[in-house]
Amino acid sequence: MNVQEFEELWITLNELYNADRFLEYIEISSAAVESAIKLGMYDKAILLLRYSCASYFQTGDLQLSISVLEQYRELTFQHGNDIDLIQYYNIAAIYWGTFGHLKKSEELMLKGLKIAESIQHVESLGKIYNNLSDLEISMGNYRTAKEFALKSLYYSNAFEVQHKEPYTGIMYPKTNLAVSLIWLNEFDEANILLQELLATIHNPPYSKVQLEVFNAYAILCERQGRVSEAIDLYQKTKHYALQNNDLSLLQIIYNSLVKLIEDQGNKIVLCAVQKEYINILLEIQRENYSHVLFEMEYNDHKKQFEKNAYFDPLTNIYNRRYFDENAKRMLEKAAEGNQQLALMMVDLDHFKEINDMNGHLFGDDALTNTAKTLQDYFQPFESIVARFGGDEFIILSQVKEGETVQTLADNLYQTLTALSLMVNGETVQLEFSIGVSTNNFGKIKIVEELIKHADEALYKSKRNGRNQITHYNHYCDVGNGI
Hints:
alpha+beta; Alpha-Beta Plaits; two-stranded antiparallel ribbon; 8 strands; 9% strand; disordered C terminus
């Protein structure tokens, strides 16, 4: 991946993370991290790893997150600045606390707090005080939790004092403040906060903090004696927490549910069994994760990096490196049996305009949809489908007996031009220019020659107005359009 390709992926990843599209971020982030390190962009690699840890945490996949946390720690201590160190201590503290190691969690938070106070980094101060509030809630120290939540909100610009770069995760300290108020029997104040938060939550899937808002409101209902409403809310939160694999939240919910249902005098055995099962799962997971945290072993990324060497991170199809290394063997095999192969260069027309008019994420969707269409179309054939770079794709495919290159290309063109995407309620039709060359039934054995021929044909398609196919003619110096 060169600098330009990395910068394009960097923009996409930041947009995905800021849009809370955590699963999509996870899918393509590891290749970007590897490239950033190779290019010496350590500041960006550190930020990408921090976002990866946070994304895994939001989606509940903590096992992979801890592996990423180790890489994040090493890079931060080697190349990070004070703010990077603060962020690492903060994230590591969250994980230690999640798995029951509260003292270790507090120790890491205070290390980060000391640095943040020394440089007066407002955003970090807001984040750390929020996490300290969460820690105090888990220990039952609700007055201290309330104080820390208010400090976090101060650094979030929730009061009259306005900081230039505030902590933006204001939903977290508001939730912690509400929970603290509930346990301090300040129900009216807690309800005002929770109603404000609930008004911002719409359709699933729900993030971790949104589920914690639901759980906080269930606690309020329970404490106010609104038992049926509390049970319904716990059940709803439980359903989505299961989808997120958020076992720590599930344990809290099950404990509350079992107590409520036992008080109601029904389904005691069933809920007790469910509670026991969740506790067992959680204990196993805590032991495994604690071991990983203590040992800080990192063994899983080598295979992932090897995979990333041959796959385009955005479209998840083969990249140019894979094509270059495997097309030669495919040509040699075809030459032995005088088999006809077709090489096609496919270009998504007007890609820059698509990006400029509809946004970078829309452009990425256009590329990923094109890649999937190509992959599906050539799945029945012995073929290599790869992203050649930018908005270009390259395919080397067998031509089945009884079929012609012309038919293969025509059918592909019809399939591609049927692609459309929706943006702001309007349909955007995609268009493609295609250049086609063949190995002339095994006579051409050099990949570069095939690519050169297809590229010349593609150039003619563009020169003649785009959105068309051109076949390279072996008997003259130009392609012949169809």
